[in-house]
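RECORD TYPE: inverse folding
INPUT: structure tokens
STRUCTURE:
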């Protein structure tokens, strides 16, 4: 299939698909004349890339998986799982930091209310 159809199926722009290929996230795409010919495997990979991006992964974070895949000719599930675990750990840290910030903001709000009473302290 041509890039237009792949774009429709995956939601990735043509420019993004070319970028994924240039970065090595897509295996060598065969050509018919000057046109690239994509297959179902490319659709799956592009869809996975889009899903990973929507979950906060940067393209650079996906490269190690692609490198192992190219070297060992298999999808490195263990590398992907480790990347997901690392991302989850990072998110948990961000959540803890956000919760602490929320507590501190609540304290600041209360200090302001105590120092400068308002008619309606719920504002």
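DESIGNED SEQUENCE:
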């Amino acid at each position: 299939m041509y890039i237009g159809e792949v774009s429709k199926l995956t939601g990735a722009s043509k420019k993004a698909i070319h970028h994924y290929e240039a970065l090595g996230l897509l295996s060598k795409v065969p050509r018919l004349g000057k046109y690239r010919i994509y297959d179902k495997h490319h659709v799956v990979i592009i869809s996975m890339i889009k899903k990973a991006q929507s979950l906060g992964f940067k393209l650079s974070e996906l490269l190690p998986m692609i490198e192992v895949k190219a070297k060992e000719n298999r999808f490195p599930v263990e590398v992907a799982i480790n990347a997901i675990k690392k991302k989850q750990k990072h998110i948990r840290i961000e959540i803890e930091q956000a919760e602490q910030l929320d507590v501190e903001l609540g304290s600041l709000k209360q200090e302001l209310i105590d120092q400068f009473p308002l008619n309606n302290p719920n504002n």
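NOTES: Residues 77-115 form the longest helix (39 residues).
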